[in-house]
Amino acid sequence: MPIRAVVGFGANLGDRLATMRAALGRLARVARVDKTSRVYVTAPLGGPEQQPEFLNAAALVVYDGTPEALLEALLGIERELGRIRAAKWGPRSIDLDVLWIEGVALRTAHLIVPHPSLKERAFALVPLLEVVPDARHPPGGESYTVPAGDVRATADFL
Q: Which of 16, 21, 29, 92 does the annotation list as catalytic?
């Protein structure tokens, strides 16, 4: 049975927008992309000081597989696009996350859905709510409230 999920995109190295669009194109080969958010500029959160600003966006997808298989597909796209995991919260050419899956609360060894920090991260929640304005936080179904944070729309994703 297909799942309806929101994938978060982030990048702060290289041609950020081009890399994010390349990742979106690759994602469209494995899932149906129903909607994309605008692209937002955000300050880095955690990690080394003096790193470039991030671009962040989200895509609502329909995926014919398991949440874990979607995560594996995203990790494969990151590898294809040259993602190197050098430092936690460090600079990156591309970062893809399963942020939310409709009606699903999941915790496995490799995946937590909704994303464990979603409620505290305006840079993820703002694009998510742009593609699914009525998203609810499973399992209780409470509405999301956007936390304070400097999130500025800059461009269309597609």
A: 92
Q: Does residue 15 have an active-site annotation?
A: no
Query: pTM (2 decimals)?
Result: 0.92
> Would you state the pLDDT for residue 21?
97
92 classed as catalytic: yes
Question: Per-domain residue ranges for the chain?
Answer: 3-156
Q: What is the CATH number of domain 3-156?
A: 3.30.70.560
67 alpha carbon, distance to own chain's centre: 14
134 is catalytic: no
Instruction: Tell me, yes or no, if 29 is annotated catalytic.
Output: no
Low-confidence winner among 76-80, 102-106, 124-128, 153-157 (lowest mean pLDDT): 153-157
